Amino acid sequence: MTALPWRPRRAVRSVALATLPVLLGACAGDPLRDEVQARIQALLRTRERALVSAAVLTGFRWRQLCFGEDTPPQLRFRIDGGERLIALDAGYYVAEPYVAGSPAGRCLPPDARLQLRRRPGGGTIELRLADPPAQ
């Protein structure tokens, strides 16, 4: 029985080609999360606060935006026929549900107003209700 010749270059190339799609997929990120974060950054580009309607966070139509109580914040966009869940990066913050003005645990319509606030020193960005309900 003769051994087949081992070709390290071909083996390395095969492994590299097999893992390339996985690596590219991991680097690509979530386009919806990237869009929402880019829009928030653009709204706060030259200021520390911005009052906006929730609808401006995306470029598509949705029925309801629900905020999770997670860290980092999770946003669930309810769309006719489904929903999209995104987790914002660690640089974004939503206060606990018992804090006045916190959207955590709430669902909002597109016309609800949000206050986007950059913490001093260019730190984290907080998402709050612009018109919090009376408690």
What does this protein structure show overall?
Keywords: Signal. Residues 1-28 form the signal peptide. It comes from Lysobacter firmicutimachus. This is Lipoprotein. This protein has helices at 8-28, 31-43; strands spanning 49-53, 64-67, 74-79, 82-87, 92-93, 107-108, 113-118, 125-129. The strands form 2 sheets. A 4-stranded mixed beta sheet has the order 1-7-8-5, with no helix packed on it. It has a 4-stranded antiparallel beta sheet with strand order 4-3-2-6, with no helix packed on it. It has 135 residues and is an alpha+beta fold. The protein is globular. The chain is built from 2 helices and 8 strands, in the order H-H-E-E-E-E-E-E-E-E. Mean pLDDT is 82; it is low at 14-27. Helix content is 25%, strand content 27%. It has one domain (30-129).
